[in-house]
């Protein structure tokens, strides 16, 4: 059950983050607030179902960081340092893309300046990120089945003749 929910939450994360990276109309402060609110509900549901050890919440980390990135101030060099230290699950390319797509929804917000984005790129230069922008939402985590050894030894098993397994020999 835990493995199923980890996979499901990863798919939620990948599809939502990919939509965020591809759609300018959803890159805003209010979307960041809405994402964080909905993610909190998912995390509370996991705790309520006692699934917090499944790793499902950790698969949402890139989406959480993207939501926080949308909510942070984006003006000074200190803001750039804060963004770089906070967004460890996002690649440099993803951070820059979200900042480029950021769209103010009211008169109190401002667009992210080109100088600020260059400052972010300078701070993140030493990162060794993979060159991918979108997450693979078809990624599958390996499934693990717990091994429970049997107390029955193989030399005590009797194979009925009706199974037509004469080719098996006891050694």
Describe the structure.
This protein has 171 residues and is mainly alpha-helical. It is built from seven helices and no strands. Helix 2 packs antiparallel against helix 4, helix 5 packs across helix 7 (114-123) and helix 6 (92-101) packs antiparallel against helix 7. It holds the Pfam family DIL. Residues 1-126 form the Dilute domain.
Quickly list its features:
mainly alpha, MYO5B protein, 171 residues, GTPase binding, Dilute_dom, Vascular_dev_regulator, 7 helices
List the helices and strands and how they pair.
Elements: H1 2-22, H2 29-48, H3 56-59, H4 61-71, H5 77-86, H6 92-101, H7 114-123
Helix pairs in contact: 1-4, 2-4, 5-7, 6-7
The count of DSSP E runs of length 2 or more, i.e. the number of strands, is 0
Q: What sequence of helices (H) and strands (E) makes up the elements?
A: HHHHHHH
**Biggest beta sheet attributes:** none
Distance between the termini: 40 Å
Share of helix among residues?
A: 40-55%
Based on secondary structure, the structural category is mainly alpha
> What is the helix tally?
7
Mean pLDDT: 93
Task: Write down the domain tally.
Answer: 1
Radius of gyration: 24 Å
- State the shape: elongated
Tell me the β content: under 5%
Low-confidence stretches: none
């Amino acid at each position: 059950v835990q493995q199923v929910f980890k996979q499901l939450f990863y798919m939620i994360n990948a599809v939502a983050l990919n939509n965020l990276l591809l759609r300018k109309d959803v890159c805003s402060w209010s979307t960041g607030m809405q994402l964080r609110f909905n993610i909190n509900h998912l995390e509370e549901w996991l705790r309520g179902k006692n699934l917090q050890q499944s790793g499902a919440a950790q698969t949402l980390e890139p989406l959480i960081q993207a939501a926080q990135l949308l909510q942070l101030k984006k003006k000074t060099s200190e803001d750039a340092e804060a963004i770089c230290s906070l967004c460890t699950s996002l690649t440099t390319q993803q951070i820059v893309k979200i900042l480029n797509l950021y769209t103010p929804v009211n008169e109190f917000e401002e667009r992210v300046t080109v100088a600020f984005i260059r400052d972010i790129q300078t701070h993140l230069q030493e990162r060794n990120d993979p060159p991918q922008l979108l997450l693979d939402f078809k990624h599958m985590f390996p499934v693990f089945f717990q091994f429970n050894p049997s107390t029955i030894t193989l030399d005590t098993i009797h194979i009925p003749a009706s199974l037509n397994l004469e080719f098996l020999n006891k050694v």
